[in-house]
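Appendix B, Record 12. Input sequence as logged:
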Amino acid sequence: MTYQKLAKLYDFLMEDAPYEQWVEFTESFLSKEVPNQQTKILDLGCGTGQVTWRLAERGYQLTGVDLSEDMLVEAASHALEKKLDIQWLKQDMTQLEGLSNYDLIISYCDVINYITEQEKVSAAFQRAYQSLSEDGIFLFDVHSMDYVQNEMVDQLFSEVYDQLAYIWFCYPGDHKGEMMHELTFFLQEDDKYQRFDEFHHQRTYPLSIYLNLLFEAGFKDVKVFTDFQTEPIDDLTTDPFGERLFFACRKKANTDTVNDS
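Logged structural output:
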């Protein structure tokens, strides 16, 4: 997926996204779980870099990775405007190369849901594991199964702005937790409206699948949170309710307690 023309409109359409909450969640987790503040962070699926530059402004060393060159161009433009030194790389997160010794890896805004084949999700987790330093942490979020099934599929969304309108239809795929997004945009250019279409494919999996893939990748200590909550859930045997599930995965547990439910 390259986002094509959507890259130019992405920040406008996402202006209400909870970027500050992602940043606050990240720092809250680090302050609780990491005695010495971590500084080297890899942002996988960074998009236009909204979370990336916010963390960079707080003094962390950031690398942003995305598959879309168009999105990276927008991200680099933001960083240049803010005079931030951030490394931007075009890579597929399921085939990461040349990246290692990161204290923290993040992947937010349901980036993992765009990896729709289980073996590729597994590959992404393995690459993240390999790119972490010893005792490093991988933080990511996904849409919950409940949210996809009850709030997204078979829904129609639309919005009209002064120079832009869109219609977004979300319909189910062949598997539970799979959804297809068909988006049609009408963008005013001079006195005419130009139409362009986008198709996005996402899939979420049951909690048990994510946990198994993470343990197989080598992670030993995995905590799960819902909707930016800072206390992990206790029951990992059933899928929790909420819009998003957050996973905090440590490469090497620094305690004798290992969560492998």
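The chain is about 30% helix and 35% strand.
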